[in-house]
UniProtKB/TrEMBL annotation, chain A:
<protein>
    <submittedName>
        <fullName>NADH-quinone oxidoreductase subunit M</fullName>
    </submittedName>
</protein>
<feature type="transmembrane region" description="Helical">
    <location>
        <begin position="328"/>
        <end position="349"/>
    </location>
</feature>
<dbReference type="InterPro" id="IPR010227">
    <property type="entry name" value="NADH_Q_OxRdtase_chainM/4"/>
</dbReference>
<comment type="similarity">
    <text>Belongs to the complex I subunit 4 family.</text>
</comment>
<dbReference type="GO" id="GO:0003954">
    <property type="term" value="F:NADH dehydrogenase activity"/>
</dbReference>
<feature type="transmembrane region" description="Helical">
    <location>
        <begin position="451"/>
        <end position="471"/>
    </location>
</feature>
<dbReference type="InterPro" id="IPR003918">
    <property type="entry name" value="NADH_UbQ_OxRdtase"/>
</dbReference>
<keyword id="KW-0472">Membrane</keyword>
<dbReference type="GO" id="GO:0012505">
    <property type="term" value="C:endomembrane system"/>
</dbReference>
TrEMBL record, chain B:
<keyword id="KW-0520">NAD</keyword>
<comment type="subunit">
    <text>NDH-1 is composed of 14 different subunits. Subunits NuoA, H, J, K, L, M, N constitute the membrane sector of the complex.</text>
</comment>
<dbReference type="GO" id="GO:0050136">
    <property type="term" value="F:NADH dehydrogenase (quinone) (non-electrogenic) activity"/>
</dbReference>
<feature type="domain" description="NADH:quinone oxidoreductase/Mrp antiporter transmembrane">
    <location>
        <begin position="124"/>
        <end position="423"/>
    </location>
</feature>
<dbReference type="GO" id="GO:0005886">
    <property type="term" value="C:plasma membrane"/>
</dbReference>
<dbReference type="GO" id="GO:0012505">
    <property type="term" value="C:endomembrane system"/>
</dbReference>
<dbReference type="GO" id="GO:0042773">
    <property type="term" value="P:ATP synthesis coupled electron transport"/>
</dbReference>
<feature type="transmembrane region" description="Helical">
    <location>
        <begin position="104"/>
        <end position="121"/>
    </location>
</feature>
<feature type="transmembrane region" description="Helical">
    <location>
        <begin position="300"/>
        <end position="324"/>
    </location>
</feature>
Length: 494, 495
């Protein structure tokens, strides 16, 4: 099983190619897609059994790829990528269940390609390989929004494409420059992360290189100022694409800062920490206020997710053990919760043909099970005690207090604001008098398939909330070891 | 006898041209002419492949021609591209020739003449013969551009091209004369010796001459500000000719430019750096601005070919600044651009014979539903031209940009990456209109014939050139594309 990571990455796309080549009909396409996600699920299960939390990089595999240009196929797994990989693996089957009525073939092919792109980006440790997957996961999103989206989708697809590629191109420039410096120093080309992290660079050079990477990651997250694509893209994407955007791709931005930032230009990150903290905090509060004012549920949760991702970014940049554990934990729990809430918004639209808060109301009187799940996911977004989000937010806020009192207060404020908009939204949609939209539709309560898709998410969220001790042993050694790596720098600068 | 073998690919080409010329009075069907010319081209291709590893760095018929024509891998690689490019042009357009009534037998003879001219150009090691070769190739292209006699745009394009092209040709001749005045010989090797032994302050005549020649080369490859003909000519020419020009003729000029500036003028290359850089910046920006504003796909591809010229110019100035890999990266980019543009223009001319529309962006609305496979192939070529990773175009840009970073041109690299970003807009716009709109469910199956199989093959090359590895036994991967480029360049230097 030494190639297990390769199988995890390529199973979906190979399934897609085979299905495309035999011109599978829609039924076999669905079965094939689900089967590929199940295979990946079991492979990841195998990984989690054999995963050793006390080691850093595991299951790594290096193969020559295009050797004269210095590209190598280098993949590996540590606790950080393990968390991200598991949420991808866990979320794909529910998404396929959500899509079971979808009979447009392109939808399914795009989702399979997307899974390959995302897991490839998570697992690759060669910068060019990473760039390849980073771009690969953009294409299906572009097609999904542009072809299957709603309301101004063509325009919004082009917008997200151009903005993210702007980031990618600046990252590409930095990657090329790094490779060139390696070539100057050692006389051979290499884009391997291990090789490149050994380079010692001048501060000016590193700052420019870091800026190139950070622009790409900031757009993906999106941090404040790099976010103009966010709300339109969330509003016009089909539900599965929204979930991938908020639950996985946005996290990859934070992952990028973590993985590449701390191994390639940690001094710069530490040096510019105050500015990044500033952007993250302002963003957190700004997005929360925007979320209060939004009437469209999709857009509201887009801003909510922006706010929470800024919190994750804050945790990543604060680099103390609380903040880091919290961020890593939040990456997983927020992914589950936002997948849940966007699935519920999708179901809301399927039932009532509207997702405007002002058009909804009184759902609780008609659909009790629906109400329970909707409220549960919304509250776990807000960090209800007992769900994973609470533990994560608490840890990050503790980390923030540890760093500075004011930052702690401000990050706690954003969590309080989240409570505000979530409760207000719940009150206007679920409770109150039965609205005319709700009265006239013959909407049924959740059926068994929908329950099958939502229950695992609920269980996972409760499990992470009630028994965090089940999961922390997996991530703690990683956090401590990587903090050890940068502690000399932290103290050195102070 | 040995020389005869090395000369045979060119000989087959010229014999083929004359044979076609003679039989063009027999009123055979166009299909017949097409098959005959492809047969000659293929024969030449087989001979080229057979002699590819033989007799490198020898002169052709040295007793008769002296050092005028040279045989090296560099030239042979270009020959391969010209031949393959023209075979693809003819085969992909079999349908086009059937449907248009203005073609006749001479047309195929002219194509062979033009290929012969280009091959001569790549082998030429002397200024006068390269001028003649260039003119053989261009005169044929002028004729081909205006081949649609009754279409105004076609004649207009030809006139524009002839007038501007002759001016450029005259400048080249003047340059040759000045260099002859300075050196006393037109052989590249004599020029090299002269440059090595003379102080740069004392060779004004040569510098002026070489600069004039450079202007001609810039004109032929469509660099800004010598680009005023490109878009109109590409648009006005019959689609197969547009494909022929983009895939072969443009590349042939680089054969001359590389040989001249890499070997003969290499000691004084730094003299041109600033001019080259200025032209590069103008070309990148100007080409991008032109490309964004186009509505027709053919014009967009023509304008974007200017941007691709810009990337190659980046490599050219990196060569002058002494980047080691710059020359081979330019060579690789030529291969990459060749493959992708043959595909893209091939699809355009394939479609223009089949569909009754103007090929604007709007005409492509819903194309993915009408012809899913064609749309997929088109997207692959667009991705490659835009330099998206996992295509050969990405590797091409990667090589260009790394060598330009190596030569210290940070600003130009950043500009190159910016224009690559802009190019995403106009290439992806096509992908967007193809996929984002629905159309009447008019599902056409992909007709499996020569044209589509070849386009498929090119798309395969695009992907394989971008991600292929040597891990799969017996199948050369992307590495070997790079190796071929490096071999070709080193064969040029070792003399």
């Amino acid at each position: 099983m030494e190639n297990i990571l390769t199988y995890i990455i390529f199973t979906p796309v190979i399934a897609a190619i085979i299905l495309g080549a035999i011109r599978a009909d829609i039924r076999s396409l669905k079965i094939g897609a689900i089967l590929s996600s199940v295979i990946v699920f079991f492979l990841t299960l195998y990984l989690s059994i054999n995963f050793n939390p006390n080691e850093m990089m595991q299951f790594s595999r290096t193969l020559p790829w295009i050797s004269s240009a210095g590209f190598s196929y280098h993949v590996g797994l540590d606790a950080l990528s393990f968390v991200l990989l598991s949420i991808v693996t866990l979320l794909m089957p529910p998404l396929y269940i959500y899509m079971h009525t979808e009979s447009r073939k392109g939808y399914w092919y795009n989702m399979m390609l997307l899974q390959t792109g995302v897991s490839g980006a998570i697992l690759s440790l060669d910068l060019i390989l990473f760039y390849l997957f980073w771009e690969t996961m953009l294409l299906p999103i572009f097609i999904m929004i542009g072809k299957y989206g709603n309301s101004m989708h063509q325009y919004n697809a082009m917008k997200i494409l151009l903005m993210t590629i702007l980031g990618s191109m600046s990252m590409l420039f930095s990657i090329l420059y790094l490779g060139h410096i390696y070539f100057e120093t050692f006389g051979v080309w290499s884009f391997n992360l291990n090789d490149l992290s050994e380079l010692s660079l001048s501060v000016t050079t590193t700052s420019w290189l870091a800026a190139g990477f950070l622009l790409a990651f900031a757009i993906k997250i999106p941090l404040l100022g790099f976010h103009t694509w966010m709300a339109p893209a969330y509003a016009s994407s089909p539900t599965p694409a929204v979930i991938i955007l908020s639950a996985i791709m946005a996290k990859l931005g934070a992952y990028g800062i973590w993985r590449f930032g701390y191994s390639l230009f940690e001094e710069v990150l530490i040096y510019y920490k105050p500015y990044i903290i500033f952007i993250a905090i302002i963003g957190m509060i700004y997005y929360a206020i925007k979320a209060v004012t939004e009437d469209n549920l999709r857009r509201m949760f887009a801003y909510a997710s922006g706010s929470h991702l800024s919190l994750i970014a804050l945790g990543v940049i604060l680099s103390n053990s609380y903040a880091w554990s919290g961020s890593l934990y939040f990456i997983a729990t927020h992914a589950l919760a936002s997948a849940g809430i966007f699935l519920m918004i999708g179901l809301t639209y399927k039932r009532f043909k509207t997702i405007n808060i002002s058009d909804l109301g009184g759902i609780a009187q008609r659909l009790p099970r629906f109400t329970f799940f909707f409220a549960f996911f919304a509250l776990s977004i807000a960090g209800l005690p007992g769900t994973g989000g609470f533990v994560a937010e608490l840890l990050i806020i503790l980390g923030a207090f540890k760093h500075h009192f004011t930052i702690g207060i401000l990050s706690a404020t954003s969590v309080l604001l989240a409570m505000l908009y979530i409760f207000w939204m719940l009150q206007r949609t679920l409770f109150g008098s039965v609205n005319i939209y709700i009265k006239d539709t013959a909407a049924d309560d959740l059926n068994s398939k929908e329950l099958l898709m939502l229950t695992p998410l609920v269980i996972m969220l409760l499990l992470t909330g009630i028994a965090p001790s089940l999961f922390t042993p997996y991530i703690e050694p990683y956090i401590l070891q990587s903090l050890d790596g940068i502690t000399p720098l932290l103290t050195g600068i102070k | 006898m040995r020389d005869l073998l090395y000369a045979s690919p060119m000989a087959v080409m010229i014999i083929g041209a004359f044979v076609l010329m003679i039989i063009s009075r027999d009123n055979l069907s166009l299909n017949r002419y097409n098959i005959i010319s492809v047969a000659f081209l293929s024969l030449s291709l087989i001979l080229q492949i057979y002699t590819f590893d033989k007799g490198n760095s020898t002169y052709l018929f040295e007793s008769a021609f002296g050092k005028t024509f040279i045989i090296d891998k560099f030239a042979k690689l270009f020959d391969l591209m010209f031949t393959i490019g023209s075979i693809l042009t003819l085969l992909i357009n079999t349908d086009y020739f059937k449907r248009q009534n203005y073609f006749n037998g001479e047309y195929f003879a002219i194509i062979l003449f033009s290929v012969f001219g280009m091959m001569m150009l790549s082998h030429s090691n002397e200024l006068v013969s390269s001028f003649i070769a260039l003119e053989i190739a261009t005169l044929s292209i002028y004729t081909l551009v205006g081949y649609h006699k009754f279409k105004k745009a076609s004649s207009e394009a030809m006139m524009k091209y002839i007038i501007l092209g002759s001016l450029a040709g005259a400048l080249f001749m003047l340059g040759v004369a000045l260099i002859y005045g300075a050196v006393g010989s037109t052989l590249f090797s004599d020029i090299t010796i002269y440059i090595k032994n003379t102080n740069i302050d004392e060779m004004n005549l040569l510098l002026v001459g070489a600069t004039l020649m450079m202007i001609t080369i810039m004109f032929k490859i469509g660099a800004v500000p010598f680009n005023s003909w490109v878009i109109d000519v590409y648009q006005g020419a019959p689609s197969p000719i547009t494909m022929f020009m983009a895939s072969t003729f443009k590349i042939s000029v680089f054969a001359l430019a590389l040989r001249l500036y890499l070997v003969s003028f290499s000691p004084i290359n730094e003299f041109w750096i600033e001019i080259l850089q200025a032209v590069t910046i103008a070309t990148l920006i100007g080409g991008s601005l032109l490309a964004i504003s186009q509505q027709r796909i053919k014009r967009m591809l023509a304008a974007s070919s200017i941007v691709h010229t810009g990337y190659m110019l980046i490599a050219l100035s990196s060569i002058g600044l002494g980047a080691q890999m710059a020359a081979s990266s330019l060579m690789f980019y030529l291969i990459a651009y060749f493959i992708s543009s043959v595909g893209a223009f091939g699809i355009i001319s394939f479609l223009s014979s089949q569909e009754q529309f103007d090929l604007t962006y709007n005409d492509f609305k819903g194309f993915a539903e009408r012809r899913p496979y064609m749309a997929l192939l088109m997207s692959i070529f667009m991705l490659s031209l835009a330099g998206f990773p996992s295509t050969i175009g990405f590797l091409g840009k990667f090589n260009i940009f790394t060598s330009s970073i190596e030569s210290g041109q940070i600003f130009i690299t950043a500009l190159g990456i910016t224009t690559a970003f802009i190019s995403v807009y106009y290439y992806f716009k096509l992908i967007a209109v193809m996929y984002f709109y629905s159309t009447d469910p008019r599902q056409n199956k992909l007709p499996i014939d020569v044209s589509t199989v070849l386009i498929f093959l090119m798309a395969g090359f695009v992907i394989w050139g971008g991600i292929g590895t040597n891990l799969i036994l017996n199948i050369p991967g992307a590495d070997s594309f790079i190796n071929i480029a490096q071999d070709a360049i080193s064969s040029l230097k070792n003399k």
